[in-house]
Design a protein that fits this description.
single chain; alpha/beta; Purple Acid Phosphatase, chain A, domain 2; 6-stranded mixed sheet; 5-stranded mixed sheet; 7 helices; 29% helix; 19% strand
């Protein structure tokens, strides 16, 4: 049982994704994680892609995820500091999560000190050097005019269209390599400027904790199939997997540095991952 302050970092849950191979009880596990684990934490950081798609309308909230939204609000109102960083699937968060639910919402990055460590938190999209085309499209997708035009669509049609396009993109890119060496190089470059001790991001769906001379480089994994997250306790990060049985949740500890690592089934930085 946790006896010292702990913070949790999760990303890439993609709630609302609909394709073969997903655990049918996945959303129930997310709900249990929020109520059984996160409720005992000091901080919960959602590092993007909580939903397969999110567009904030003036008077519409998707009913599919009402239980998750209610659990997040309960955490925030109960004293857990909940931060929500936008990803490439949920970049239009608006004011609902901040004003209506009490979450702390961030567009691009989070910089803060926690447990005596300086943190830089990102979603991770666009970090790879070869993602230059995506970085251009990201500016288009996030432009206020683009979002205003999308809101002109009826929510049922707009949300359905976005989910269809997301699935089509995933099917098209699922066998492409993720260029993990480029992500690692970008991560080490960010750590090298000396403003942070730990960099944590998601997006690539490859959970790990690595210690370099520049600092600690962490990926928060995914909740499509493996239900992975980062636990930070005493300034040390480790990868855990939520099974619904807490005694089975922790993955093996890392080398003598005290930094946790992923289980053997979790890909290394050189592995190939399907497109998130």
């Amino acid at each position: 049982m946790t006896t010292s302050p702990v913070a949790y970092f999760i990303s890439d849950l993609h709630l609302g994704a609909r394709y073969r191979g997903l655990d049918p009880d996945r959303e129930t596990l997310v709900l249990r994680f929020l109520r059984e684990k996160a409720a005992r934490a000091t901080h919960l950081f959602i590092l993007g892609d909580l939903f397969e798609f999110w567009m904030e309308y003036r008077s519409f909230i998707p009913k599919d995820h009402f239980r998750i939204l209610a659990a997040l609000e309960e955490l925030a109102r109960g004293g857990v500091e909940v931060h929500y960083l936008s990803g490439n699937h949920d970049f239009n968060l608006g004011s609902f999560f901040r004003d209506g639910m009490g979450l702390r919402v961030h567009d691009d990055e989070i910089r803060m000190e926690l447990q005596g460590r300086r943190l830089l938190l990102l979603h991770g999209d666009g970090l790879a050097e070869s993602d230059w085309k995506y970085r251009i499209m990201k500016k288009v997708f996030r432009h206020p005019l683009s979002n205003r035009c999308f809101r002109l669509l009826h929510p049922d049609f707009g949300m359905g269209l976005a989910r269809f396009m997301s699935k089509a993109s995933r099917d098209q890119h699922q066998n492409r390599p993720r260029h993990m060496d480029e992500y690692e190089a970008a991560g080490r470059a960010l750590l090298a400027d000396g403003r942070q001790d730990i960099l944590i991001h998601g997006h690539t769906h490859a959970a790990f904790v690595k210690e370099f001379p520049e600092g600690v480089y962490v990926n928060s994994g995914e909740w499509l199939t493996r239900m992975e997250y980062v636990a930070m306790e005493g300034g040390v990060c480790r990868i855990e997997r939520f099974t619904g049985e807490e005694s089975l949740g922790s993955l093996p500890s890392g080398p003598s540095s005290g930094v946790g690592r992923a289980a053997p089934s979790v890909p290394t930085a050189s592995g190939e991952k399907k497109n998130p």
